[in-house]
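In response to reviewer comment 3 from the previous cycle, which asked for concrete evidence that the modeling workflow produces usable outputs, we include below a single protein chain processed end to end. The sequence was submitted unchanged, and the resulting structure tokens are shown without manual editing.
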Amino acid sequence: MSTLQKVTKWIFEKKKKADNRGLTLVELVCAMAILGLIGTGVGSVLIVSANNYNRGNNEVTLQQEAQMTANQLENLVVDATEQIQYTCTVGGTEYDCVNEAQALSYGAIAGGDRTLKIKQGDRLYVVAYQSANQQIVYSEYIVAVDGSTSTVATNQLMTENVTAFSADLSGFAESRSLQLSLSLEKSGRTYSSSYTITARNGMVTTAAEAVAATITTESEIVLEPSQVYPLEATVVGPADTSVTWTMSGNTSSSTCLALNPSTGKMEIRIATDERASDLYLMVKTVAKKEDGVTPLAQMPVTVHIRRVTAVTLTGELESGTALSAGAVYKITANVSGTYLDQVPATAYDADYKETRDVQWSYLVTNNGYEVGGPDWSWELPSGYYTVLDSSEDGSVSSCYTRIRLERNLENTIQILVTAVATHPEGEVTLADGVTTRQTNKTAIAYDHVFGTYWLFRNYWDFNGGMIKRGSDDSQGSFTAFGALKGMLIAQYGNGDYKARKEYRYREIIYMDPVTGARTYGPWTSWVQTPQNVSDQDINLRPVVTSRFECNKDYQVQIRLSVYDTSNGNVLWPAADTPESAYLIDAEVLRIKPTFNSWDFGFTDATQYGTEAAPMVIAMNGATEVEKTLFSFSNCNSIKVDNIKDRVRGQIQKLEGGVWVDAGSSAGFVRNNDVCIAKFYETGTYRVLITAENIPYVTYNPATDTYIEGSKNYNLYDEATGSGIFYYKVQ
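The workflow returned the following structure tokens.
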């Protein structure tokens, strides 16, 4: 009886004992709820049981499929009459392999297509794993005496759900056994297994292949640029034991295979400029199989190139305040490259040279000049830093240097720490300046690899507020110039490296008085500064700044670079140099003189009073009153001498709500820097500041010529009130 029947029977019997009436609605609902709970539990158990059954069934299915595949292959292998072939295809070329490792050495993809070719008398069976559809299929052919084939069956399905298929034939010639590996997957369940399959004794061979051939040689070699290495291969079996060598994967045409006439041996020569990390050689017997094409034996050889490619420096502040006197920095050099480690117990690495050694050097520059050099000879580098300890031996751990700063690094000071990898140098001179040491196997330099670490505040020191029209004053200094020269010397050797400063500008058409947002006109093209082109001085000099009109605002950009004068090539900045290192933004604003007044008590003012609240002057019944309105104090955005004698004042009077020339009501007199006014009538007046005959120079890029001239400028601004002074005479 089912659980549902039992529950129903119990309810009815209990009801019967109570009375003869039927089930109430409440009783029926309770019964259904109980049945639902029981049904849910039973259903869950059934689902779990079903899933467990399916998983177990999938595992059994995969095991059965794998065993069936192994049995089918055993039926083919057991009666094999020739050496079985295991092949992979790379780039359209089929390669014979003895195992999976050799297949991968040809460049085959792990888990990719593989094929077994099994010969039984006049029958050829081809078992192929197709990774794209995860199937193993087989084909059967009849092989005629002349070697031609006819098809019996093709691409017949043996197994599916296969994720990997490989074989190992390395012991087949001796033990007649091969190792087969299979991996299958279905519905999330996987199964992997290996099988040993042995052929029967009495293998039959054709007359042409009665002799088995084996090649013995080094399968992997690590060589260095400029190195020449003899290649040796021993062939056992055929009468002709000669071999041929081929090479692929090289990036330099100077990397080659060549026969040494004195030894009769093939040699590989690694070019100095060889950039590949791996080369691939193939050695093949000259003796061929019965087809006259296929070598009796072949073997791949991989040549790894040992080459230092980079030195990376990292710095750590160990104690003290950054960039201040007493700060101690530890700078560590990490040398990287390809196959830098020694391969123990190998003949080709018996003369191994340490690859991670470096040589440390230090350069101090102040305001772009080398400290201790011809342009800054009055100070020594020892006044800026002290080397506490260092290591240049990379055989134990990373090389490092620890330095202590002896003074604060101001904006103009740079300390450049350089670590040069010695292995690429071939030979290096030791600290005594005389002894040299061989640093790689050939003692020939194949590169110049170094890393740098800078201790500095800025690449440049610049005061944008110093840009003035007509000024000879420097705006700043390219402080990193000396350190950059030192870096370029380390990289390219000594050369005539110069600094280049270029500029461009655009007009600021509008500046929002609240947000400061600007609206710009178009940029001019980049132009090289006409003076002080090659040193570290940063300025625009009068010939540039004078071309900015006095009543306009401009944004200016200055671009710094370092170039080689011998060929004009720009060597810095590099592509990854941050823009902030070489691009300076500044502004040249409209002229704004400032004024002082003892009579009215203001200083450094560009305007004073308003129309509604002017400065008050009392006539006290006099027919005229004389006041020192202001004296010239300073000037923004132009050289002082270019304007102080050219400042003029124009007095206007407010009549009928309109400003008109004051005429005989007032007069303006300039006495050196002092501006004096005489007022003859009461009323409201204003003084407008102007400048006369201000020189400027315009540049014609088409003809590369400068045109000199002068202009009169109104220095007042009706919108802002700048340059306007208001007075009320009463």
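Residues 337 and 419 are 15 Å apart (CA to CA). We consider this sufficient to address the reviewer's concern, and the full set will be provided in the supplementary archive.
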